[in-house]
Write a sequence for this structure.
């Protein structure tokens, strides 16, 4: 379980680093504000983390996390969405 969670966090950090490299702060903040009122955002993000993919934040693929329990993925997505500067 710890290994899977560490792998998920590592995958998100890789994707996050690729996104940070391609976005400036103003563009990232504008993206977050655009989806701020999207009540479906958590479910969409959970699905994306579980299924993986590429092309959303560039061409760095994020592997699927099918063995990670849904509750763990949801908890991580909720935590990320709660982060504030």
């Amino acid at each position: 379980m710890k290994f899977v969670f560490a792998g998920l966090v590592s995958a998100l950090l890789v994707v996050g680093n690729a996104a940070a490299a391609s976005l400036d702060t103003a563009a990232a903040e504008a993206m977050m504000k655009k989806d701020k009122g999207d009540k479906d955002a958590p479910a969409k993000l959970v699905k994306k983390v579980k299924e993986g993919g590429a092309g959303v934040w560039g061409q760095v693929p994020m592997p699927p996390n099918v063995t990670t329990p849904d509750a763990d993925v949801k908890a991580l997505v909720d935590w990320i969405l709660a982060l504030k500067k």
The CA atoms of residues 46 and 73 lie 6 Å apart.
